[in-house]
């Protein structure tokens, strides 16, 4: 074989290796930032901040800032490790094909190292900056999201979102623990609010994502039980969510402002879930899943509104105006 043939073969092999390694060495800051799932992280930051500010004990502004920063990094670490483990199905699903790993900008090894480092760093620094109870809950949150949800539940049971939703529900408890050093009924109720909200929120998304989960062989409820059953589950979980959400009005973190906001948004959410349940696939396909997309968008606004109302109540209490 000539030297030219050897060189051409070598170059071809390098191209193939480059395709397998997926962009090694080409990743930039924006790619690693994308690994943190910034949209999800924004929800983590907001609910954790509300938990911190709603707590009865004041926190020094600097401690509060660094605590929220490390909670955000912990949430981002979970996202990076999730993308590392799910790289195979992310390449299949249209919704995730542009993520850094399937798009060829970050290797799986880089994502694993990045996520593992941030996990340890965020937990240790939160423990040093605030307290080890908060750090322990953060560590458990990362473990639950990565190991229990991503590695186990997501690919084995249609209850993946129901049980796995706990991972996204811990941030307000972490924020509360930063301020108080412990857990209380109020922080548990904030956990329950997010926990109960998660299934109807994701199932609404699953309805209009069509075949993504089926092609990736992820046992989402739409795949295992069908779309009609999923629509019923959305309605049932939304009805169960409403009394939990409204009930917070009558605790120490609630008040008339929260009650008004909660009544309005729970009525809208229940109405949306009812509209989804009444529709069949023919109707949904005819209008491009307009109702399902509308309810999914409403569900995002719903959670921010609920926690925003808790934040308003805690701010009013500073001036002797909040609560009952």
Quick overview:
The chain is mainly α and 324 residues long. Helices cover 76% and strands 0% of the residues.
Note down, in words, how this protein is organized.
The chain is mainly alpha-helical and 324 residues long. The protein folds into two domains: 159 residues, Orthogonal Bundle (Tetracycline Repressor, domain 2); 140 residues. It is 76% helix and 0% strand. It has 17 helices and no strands. α2 packs across α4, α11 runs antiparallel to α14 and α14 packs antiparallel against α15. It is flat and about 55 Å long.
Q: Which characteristics define this entry?
A:
flat; 324 residues; 2 domains; disordered N terminus; mainly alpha; 17 helices; Tetracycline Repressor, domain 2
How many helices? The count is: 17
* Shape descriptor: flat
Mind telling me which CATH architecture of the largest domain this is? Answer: Orthogonal Bundle
Rg from alpha-carbon coordinates: 22 Å
Taken as a percent bin, the fraction of beta residues is under 5%
CA-to-CA gap between the ends? 87 Å
Query: What is the averaged pLDDT score?
Result: 90
Low-confidence stretches: 1-25
Identify the CATH homologous superfamily of the largest domain: UbiA prenyltransferase
Number of domains: 2
Q: Share of helix among residues?
A: over 70%
* Name of the top-level CATH class of the largest domain: Mainly Alpha
Order of helices and strands: HHHHHHHHHHHHHHHHH
Enzyme class: transferase
Function: Converts heme B (protoheme IX) to heme O by substitution of the vinyl group on carbon 2 of heme B porphyrin ring with a hydroxyethyl farnesyl side group.
Catalytic activity: heme b + (2E,6E)-farnesyl diphosphate + H2O = Fe(II)-heme o + diphosphate
Protein name: Protoheme IX farnesyltransferase
């Amino acid at each position: 074989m000539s030297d030219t043939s050897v060189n051409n073969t070598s170059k071809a092999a390098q191209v193939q290796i480059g395709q397998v390694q997926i962009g090694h060495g080409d990743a930039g800051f924006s790619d690693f930032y994308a690994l943190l799932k910034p949209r999800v992280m924004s929800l983590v930051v907001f609910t954790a901040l509300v938990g911190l500010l709603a707590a009865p004990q004041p926190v020094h502004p600097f401690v509060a800032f660094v605590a929220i920063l490390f909670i955000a990094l912990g949430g981002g670490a979970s996202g990076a490790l999730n993308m590392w483990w799910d790289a195979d199905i992310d390449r299949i699903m249209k919704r995730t094909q542009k993520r850094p790993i399937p798009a060829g900008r970050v290797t799986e090894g880089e994502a694993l190292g990045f996520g593992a480092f941030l996990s340890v760093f965020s937990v240790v620094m939160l423990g040093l900056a605030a307290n080890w109870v908060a750090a322990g809950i953060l560590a458990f949150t990362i473990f639950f999201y990565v190991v229990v949800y991503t590695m186990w539940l997501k690919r084995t049971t249609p209850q993946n979102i129901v049980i796995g939703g706990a991972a996204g529900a811990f941030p307000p408890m972490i924020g509360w623990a930063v301020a108080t050093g412990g857990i209380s009924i109020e922080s548990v109720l904030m956990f329950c609010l997010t926990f109960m909200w998660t299934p109807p929120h994701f199932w609404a998304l699953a309805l209009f994502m069509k075949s993504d989960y089926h092609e990736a062989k992820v046992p989402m409820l739409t795949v295992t039980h069908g779309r009609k059953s999923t629509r019923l589950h959305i309605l049932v979980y939304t009805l169960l969510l409403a009394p939990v959400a409204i009930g917070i009005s009558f605790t120490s973190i609630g008040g008339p402002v929260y009650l008004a906001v909660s009544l309005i948004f729970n009525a809208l959410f229940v109405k949306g879930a009812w509209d989804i349940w009444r529709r069949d696939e023919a109707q949904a396909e005819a209008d491009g899943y307009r109702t399902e997309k509308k309810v999914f968008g409403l569900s995002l606004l719903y959670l921010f509104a609920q926690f925003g109302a808790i934040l308003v109540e805690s701010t009013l209490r500073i001036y002797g105006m909040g609560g009952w």
